[in-house]
Amino acid sequence: MRITVDEVKCCGAGQCVMVAPDVFDQRDEDGVVVLLDAEPPAVLRPAVHEAASVCPAAAIALDRRG
Amino acid sequence: MSDVPIEQPLDYPLPAPAALEPPAEWARLRQQCPVARVKLPSGDEAALVTRYEDVRSVLADPRFTRELNAPGAARIIDTESGGLFNSPVANTLAAEGHARWRRMVGKWFTARRMAALRPGIEATADRLVDGMLEHGQPADLVTHLAFPLPVWVICDMLGAPESDRDRFAHWSDVTLSLTEYSGTEIDAAQHEFTACLTDLVDTKREQPGDDLLSELLAVTDAEGRPMSDAGLVATAQALLVAGHETTASMIAKMVAMLLADRRHWERLAADRTLVRTAVEEILRFDPNGGFGLPRFLHEDAEISSGLLPSGTTVVCSMAAANRDDSAFESAGELDLGRSPNPHLAFGAGAHSCLGQPLARTELQVVLDVLLRRLPTLDLAVGADELRRVEGLVVGRLHELPVRW
Ligand code: HEM
Ligand code: SF4
Which UniProt keywords are listed (chain B) (predicted)? Predict the structure, then answer.
């Protein structure tokens, strides 16, 4: 699984950080998402899927082939 | 009720059978009439969308604008100011540049900052519960906890003095009214509110503190421009108005929903690790979600349920969408462990609720504190005796009598 985030779409809601803090963070100056780990280990996948599905801005994309 | 022909516009907001029960029309509209003609309190007509996919795509699509003061847009209520949706606040914030404004204010709402705020919110909730215990049972949870907590949290964030909190609460109440107050009353309240906040900004300029207004006075955007004074006042006003009543009513509805069928409360009391998913599920399940979100179209736009012509005012019912069976398994059931839960209670897209991390934190903290302090909490009246306040943008309960 490979994750990409869209900083322009991100509205800084921080849902991803609440759900998967090992994978996502937020910039201190404006709350925009920071991807910590684009290819997280399998144990984190459910959390990453949850983050992508609840992101209000649809700013998190998952590529399942990678 | 169900033999009203669908071609007739429905009166909107839709009537609901009881405070904790959704309008009967939701299910029928989702199935048979996903784009429904409705008549707003002003008498103007709009198109109501109720399906999950439609609501989500309309909210995320910039062609559906928030320009409710554009010529031809439906008015929500029959006053000159048009109330909340095309208030001077909304217009001033638009003038600041929406994306720029979100970035400047967004730093106050990161997950990290929420973690830092949590102990203070918890201490306040504990203090309010102490007050309720002192008062004795039965007690109204709205007066003792749900209403004061969010005002305290926002005033603290803004750096507003304790002595202003009652007045702030009144202003946000008037601003969110749909039909309860007259147009003159709404205008007068908005005027006073603006004057008071202008004073607060001046005070912060002279004596900066560790608060959002002082910080916004000191910083500039990516191009080095500061926020205008009108922008600062509008920001303070928007945060209070957007963050007070919404959260206050959600706290009360949350407790009411969990106690109306006490098995939910007991499940949480036995396993408090469910608090996070429980709060999301309560937000999804809200039967009394208020007006919904209006949008205006300047061009034709296609959504999955059909073509919406240019000049249409669309009202999105997130609460109806949140119970759409095609988006949520057993959508009509409250499942406190549901995950993931991509509900639309905070909207979607670029305008989705800026304060959602704060609202979530407040709801989680309140629930945690109540489960810890008052595991025997129960309704002091039957759930069918609870009454909703009519005439507000936000769906709210009059009072919530509890015992323990
Ligand atoms: C349970 C509580 C809450 C609910 C249900 C809620 C709901 C919403 C919704 C649906 C919107 C979208 C409006 C639109 O798209 O036109 C919104 C916007 C907003 N909310 Fe909340 N909200 C809550 C709490 C808060 C809190 C605590 C704050 C801040 C202290 C806040 C600040 C805002 C702001 C500033 C906006 C405008 C965002 C923008 O235009 O970019 N909200 N809220
Ligand atoms: S959940 Fe989405 S919008 Fe919110 S911070 Fe993460 S990426 Fe950005």
Answer: Heme, Iron, Metal-binding, Monooxygenase, Oxidoreductase
